[in-house]
């Protein structure tokens, strides 16, 4: 790898081009003799070569030389048409660039050298958590890009309990009152508890301001803000840092689609096997999604109890994991009522050949999922038949779906309708047409589970604000259930990032996932001729018992039991309801 590091990895596959050392400006390098530190001997013995080796901005602390620090922030060039904007110039004009100042290490107090050594070890541990893959070999001092102010801020988090002096994120009047210190890319650990809320509020506001600037065509302000947000973004940091990394990628895709890739690339990514696996993992790891699916299963079982034959139509099978809980519930019901024969269950997956989510490999993948479901049912002592029907919405009828007399028909629309185009995309309105066709089948119950967010009809800036609130709450909730550095967590959040990019940056047919708020879902169901079915205690109570009580997860019951909302600290993420 050549020195200078031509790109900076934001995570989630998004890269921002970085200039070479010659382009970074003519500012001189700061030099501070190590003799200023009273604990020089202890520091020099403490793995100088690894101390800051893997920091995202690449810093070298040589054992026999002065510390070399680069100018405050190298210019990031983002092209728009035939023009390009030098971010460092914009930062200076907006007063956003940090002044260079010599960093210093306060003297150790109390226990002296041993306490200082422990604190320096803790700093190194935090820094190395942000390790990124790089080639072996020495890194030249010219590739360092960490300012003295950032170094001082990171040291202060370990050495002293006081919060560092606040640095405004934006010079605009709307955000000046909420300014705070930007969490430096030197450390991937969250800021101290006293500064975290303010920093989160400031970075969130800057994201919203950037989206507004892009919507208004103010690309100079947008690129300047993106440069500052780039320093806050950390896909392995706290929830706000991860949200910033995710939404910066979405903003870059909106600002420069040619740089992010062709318009079909996000759709292909959302239809890949990797994304389907990430979605299924999300259903398992997030209580908000898992409990929504559980409520749908229980609503189907409640509406079809005491029926000898049950036929479930599923319009969004994904990987089939949601049916493991349903089969378990059927097996438990039979165990407690051995005199009653378990019902014969049919599951028919409806795949729309005109949908981008249906590809030539879909049939084989769905058949493999069906085989797993049938084997699981066999071990549970249940009879299950699985089939796949390829039909467009306008072709759906009882004969095409294989419906038989005497069957109790149930329709599972969990996370399915948001992937069907609505009236904002096509005058034919396939979403409402699908609901009318389902209504004509006269099912006993239709289980509906969807995310509670408007990414369909809202304009870009409003859609971006909705996405920030929604994904911010979702990322925070994952902190309570999944270890931050687990492989499953990384896979799930990469899938969420793909969703965010598509729902924020995509327009027209390119935006394939169009969610709506629960009130709009209710209105759409009623217009199609459905009536809401109250979720009784046999559905609500088991779901409530599964809500984690020692975290921030919340459950909101709609009036009369006409829906259950699952969320994080009051922000509803998913809603489950039943209709007939």
TrEMBL record:
Q: Where is this region: SAW?
A: 505-580
Region annotation Disordered: residue ranges? 127-147, 162-200
Protein's UniProt name: Scarecrow-like protein 8
**Pfam family of the protein (one):** GRAS
Transmembrane regions = none
UniProt source species: Ensete ventricosum
Which lineage ranks, top first, belong to the organism behind this chain?
A: Eukaryota, Viridiplantae, Streptophyta, Embryophyta, Tracheophyta
Q: What's the superkingdom here?
A: Eukaryota
Question: InterPro entries attached here?
Answer: TF_GRAS
Ranges of Low complexity composition bias in the record: 168-200
Question: Which keywords, in A-to-Z order, does the entry hold?
Answer: Transcription, Transcription regulation
Member of which family? Answer: Belongs to the GRAS family.
The UniProt entry annotates the motif VHIID at 310-314
